[in-house]
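User: Modeling request: complex.
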Amino acid sequence: MEKVYLLSAAQTPFGRLEKSGRDLLVEACVRAIECAGITPKDIDAGYVANSFGFVEWQSHYGPILMSTLGNPDAPCMTVASACASGSSALHEAYMGIAGGFYDCVLVAGFDRIEVKDTTKLTTYFTMGCDRVFEAENGATFPGLYALMASEYIMRYGATEEDLAHIAVKNHSNALHNPVAHIQKKISVEDVMNSPYIARPLKLLDCCPFSDGAAAAVLCSEGFIRRFRGERIRVVASSLTGGEITLHTRGDFTTIPSAVRAGKDAFRQARFTRKDIDMLEVHDCFTVAEAIALEDLGFAERGKGAFLAREGVTAIDGDIPVNPSGGLKAKGHPVSATGVAQVVEVYEQLMSLAGGRQINGAEVALTHNVGATGGSCAVHIFRRVK
Amino acid sequence: MEKVYLLSAAQTPFGRLEKSGRDLLVEACVRAIECAGITPKDIDAGYVANSFGFVEWQSHYGPILMSTLGNPDAPCMTVASACASGSSALHEAYMGIAGGFYDCVLVAGFDRIEVKDTTKLTTYFTMGCDRVFEAENGATFPGLYALMASEYIMRYGATEEDLAHIAVKNHSNALHNPVAHIQKKISVEDVMNSPYIARPLKLLDCCPFSDGAAAAVLCSEGFIRRFRGERIRVVASSLTGGEITLHTRGDFTTIPSAVRAGKDAFRQARFTRKDIDMLEVHDCFTVAEAIALEDLGFAERGKGAFLAREGVTAIDGDIPVNPSGGLKAKGHPVSATGVAQVVEVYEQLMSLAGGRQINGAEVALTHNVGATGGSCAVHIFRRVK
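Assistant: Request completed. Predicted assembly structure:
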């Protein structure tokens, strides 16, 4: 296997944006290419993660992107795995370089849904779960994650306030992230007083629907030799599958695909949990961050929900989680998210994170989940000299 | 690089089918798995090509497929590149095995659009071209390929009758293909008397809209050792990109991405054109078959349109082209097509093609184009002992 490096990562702001999806895609890629200090012609291949292109009656974004960038010869396909689309694209790029096929790969993810009506957007999102056995029976994502939260609270004695602390922490982090969708400080009371969406999850337990795009440039060791200075190596890339439906699983308080992806990633990297300086995890709902920390081995079963309250996962805590603000406050443009997590990793490991900088961060992990765990990808990154 | 083998390939019938897309997907995969003589648990990873899942409000088909098959742990993502989606999935599977990441990969492609209104379907198809610069200006695929055909006819003195012979030949081949969408013999007069869709292309110059699914199992040399008998090796897998828009290209009578993919595939395989016993090429319109033969080096520039009339590309000709019936008569369920071409290769190289069998076929090439050439993949297969 060839070594794989993260040369750059950049993104558009996240939010409700009055630009087309394709414009957002190109904007993020231009930023990443400029950040990398390369030209578009250096790119051997691309992967574009996208889920909702059909709302602008467009697919085949790969050649649209590469033609716009001025390097149409490079192959570039669309990949999708619901909310794990971005990290799936990253995984394919990793394999392309590690396998010796490519030297420089552009990875991008974006989504933009013009519709701003929450009911309709929730319907769009259900495309990622099982239409026949879940969505058509009323099980939307807030409902599915509420089942997980209920079971979690009942089994482990966690409270809704414990989960609220996760939202408060991620909103606090996003105050220092200029590209975050929601840059608004909230209190535990604010969360507790927000209306129930699907009991026990309230409005402020849920991530927003966002528009946005993110991009990263991955390259081989041979390619990165032309650049001086510190660099970031991708030391693990693990992609797993899981049961698409929640009701076919024995336990709602864990995501088995995440457990396996985490174990596999640590095996690839030959790291232990103690080596990790920061995590970006898939907090589509507050409870998802608690479960992620347990699935990845950073908390014992039933203890993940208490770490935000205890300050352990704060930027200055023992194991900072979602310094970007996470899906919860940075935002969640479905297929951009897995790549946007890498943008945070890049900025943290290169000491570019400003007011949310984690001192001395050298090793970072990203965790990106599709639907309720039908797909999961875990990547580990390390700054090297 | 590890050697990559094609263990099996199978498909559903193509046509207007009263089954959901997901049912078609699973059906094709079950057939391919049974044909391979493996169990679903043998599969390390999957790739599902799909473009129009949104019409049944479903994405994330990977875990739906793997959960249905009883192997939910295997990662499985969706890939898309318009009409080259199937071969893009194949390429990713090839890289996964050649790069040493996987031993056994399931590749599937399917599409099913419930709408049967031609105008609406043509609109759906335009998602693969450039929405802003082509579709919104009225340039649908029949129109775009008609520009190519006009230029071809003007430049090279080919006639509409020459192109009609391509349709007649492919319809004739499909008479022997039980899964073909259109099993109806036609004459040159039938083509010439069919109504113009976009001059000079007439109704019978165009492939149909089809529903359907196809699947293939690829594996490593280590994996295939458990099986006896003849086997098929994937000796080349090349994926390229090209300008998304037709109007930005200097020449409408060639598809540059296909020229590059072909050259690269022959370089990988270390074969010459004379080594190839049969081709499955992307004949979405009759003129596309003529151009494909030239782009791949099987005909001189301006001569590809005459080969069907001369009998060169017939099943018993010097270089049989589209023995399956091609997109023209076998049918074109967008994302299934690239995988379905491999089904024909499998049946021909394993001498299972019945009335359309090419005697002694040992080496086959597939050519799958996305849109007017924004993407192209060429694969070469060889039967080995």
